[in-house]
Amino acid sequence: MLNKPVLAESLIVFIIVLFVHAVVWDRYSWCAVALAIQAFYVQFKWDRLLQLGGAVFQFRTAANSGLLPASMVIPLLGIAMKERCKSAGIVYFERFGIVVASTGMLVALFLSVIAVGITKPVPSNTCVLTGVAGSIIIYTMKHSLTVSEVIEVLEVLLIFVYLSMILLYLLPRCFTPGEALLVLGGISFVLNQLIKRSLNVIEGRGDPIDFFLLVAVVGVVLLGLFFTVLFTFMDSGTWISSMFFHMMTAVLGLGVIMPWLYRLIQRNPLFWLLQFLFQTQTRVYLLVYWTFLAASACGIVFYQNAKRSSESKKHQASTITRKYFHFIVVATYVPGLIYDRQLLYVAAVLCLAVFIFLEYIRYFRIKPFGQTLRHLLSLFLDERDSGPLILTHIYLLLGMSLPVWLFPRSCAPKGTLSGAGALVPYSGVLAVGVGDTIASIFGSTMGEIKWPGTKKTFEGTMTAIFAQIIAVALILIFDSSVNLNSSYAWILASVSLVSLLEAYTTQIDNLLLPLYLQIMFM
C-alpha cells in the first residue's frame, strides 16, 4: 500500500494537472487525466517491484518510483506550449507542442506497460486502467496527428526504448523509474530533433543557439557511450588509456561534432561561438563576472576538502554547505536573465558539456585529474548519488537551465510572455535557487513541525513560499520586461503547490520542481 508521502505527492500532482486543464481544457485534457489516473495505480506496481528487487534494471533504492509526477511533465509542457503558440498564431510550434504532448504520453504509457507486464501475478484492475488510458491516448493521437507526426512520435519511442536498455544497464542505481523517464525521454527527443533538423537543414528553420544545444547534448551522450563500450575491454586508469581518451575526444569533437554543427548553422562553429560570446560589452562583463563566480565555487570545494582533512570525524558536507552552490548559481543566472538571455542560454550549454565531460574523467579515472576529482567530489555526496555517477550538480544546472532552454521564444514576439508566463525563465531560480535552498536551510535549523511521513518541516515550506514571493517582487523591480498583469493569485498558487511538492517528493527536486513551476507559469 502507498505510504502517506506518496499519497500526498500524488494529490499535489493531480491538483496541478486539474489547475492546468481548468484553463486549457480540450481533447488532450482527457488524455492527461486518464494518464495521471493510470500512472497513480501503476506506481503501486513499480514501488512493489523496487521493494522486492523484481524490476528489470537496478534503480535508485532510496526513493519511490516517482512514476506519476514524471509521467505528467512532458505532456503538460507540450500542452502549455501548444496553447501559448496557438494564442500567438504560430502554427508550426503549435503543432510541435502537440507532438511533444503526444510523445510524452506514449513514453509514459510504455513505462507503465513494462511495470504491469513484469508484475506477478498480473494485476487485472491495473491492466484494465492502462488499457483504457492507452485507448484514449491512441484514439486522440489518431484524430490529431498527421502521418509524419505519428512517425516522429514513434521514432522518439523507439530511441527511448533502446536508450533505456543501454543506459539503465550501464548505470545501475543512478535513476528511479520516474527520473529515467524524464532524463532518457528528454535525450530521446533531443536526438530525434537533431536527426530531423539535420535531414531538413535546407529549410533553414531554427536559431543557431538551438542547434548548439542539440549538438552539445547528443555529442556528450555519444561520447560517453563510446568510452563506456571501449573501457569494458581495457583498463581506463592507465596513462595509455588516458592518452587515448583525450586523443579520441579531440578526434570525435573536431571530426564529428564540429562538422555536424557546421552543417546546421552554415558557418564555422568556433568562429561563430567566439563572435557570439564577445559581441557586446555587456557580454564581456557577464563572462568576467561568471568566471569570478566559477572560481569562488572551486574555492569552496577546495576549502571544504581542506577542512575535512583537518577534521577527521566529519566525512560529508552539511546541507547548508551544499546550498552555498545554490546561492552561487542564483547569482550566476539572475544577471544573465535580466541583461542577456541568449548569452545565458549558450553559456549554460557550454557549462553542461563541461560538467558531463568532467564526470566522464572522474568516472573512468582518467589521468591526471580523475582520482583528484573523485576525492574532491566525494565530500558532497548524498543518498541520491547511490550509483556510479555523481549527478546532483548536473541536475542543479539542468533545473536552472531548462526553463531558459524550453522558453518558447518563437511564440513570444517581444521576447517575453504576458502575465505569469513572464516568469517562465525564472522558474529554476525561484523553485531551486530560492525555494529549495531556503526550505533546506530554515527547515534544518529552525523547523520543528514535520510534514507527515517526511523529514521536511512546515516552517521550511512556509519560509520557502514567502522567500519566492519576495523574489518575484525583486524580479518586478529589476527586470523591466516582466509584466504580471495582475496574475498574482495564480503565481501564489503555483509557488505554493510546487513548494508542497518539494516537501513530499523523493525524486530529484532540482530537476522536477522547475519543470512543474514552468508548466504552471506557462
Summary, kept brief:
By secondary structure, the chain is an all-alpha fold.
Structure description:
It is a multi-pass membrane protein. This is dolichol kinase. The chain crosses the membrane at residues 12-41, 61-80, 92-116, 153-171, 211-231, 243-262, 282-303, 324-339, 345-365, 386-406, 426-446, 458-478, 490-517. GO terms for molecular function: dolichol kinase activity. Its main location: endoplasmic reticulum. With 522 residues, this protein is mostly helical. The chain has a domain at 1-169. Helix content is 75%, strand content 0%. The chain is built from 19 helices and no strands. The chain has helices spanning 4-23, 27-52, 67-88, 91-118, 124-144, 147-170, 177-199, 208-230, 239-265, 269-277, 281-310, 319-339, 341-364, 370-378, 392-405, 427-446, 458-478, 488-504, 509-521. Helix 1 runs antiparallel to helix 18 (488-504), helix 11 (281-310) runs antiparallel to helix 12 (319-339) and helix 12 (319-339) packs parallel to helix 15.
Features:
0% strand, mainly alpha, 522 residues
N-to-C order of helices and strands: HHHHHHHHHHHHHHHHHHH
Mean pLDDT: 85
Characterize the biggest β-sheet. Answer: none
In percent, how helical is the residue content?
Answer: over 70%
Radius of gyration: 22 Å
Taking the alpha carbons of the first and last residues, their distance comes to: 35 Å
The total count of helices amounts to: 19
The strand count comes to: 0
What general form does the structure show? globular
Low-confidence stretches: none
Strand content: under 5%
Look at the helices and sheets and give the structural class: mainly alpha
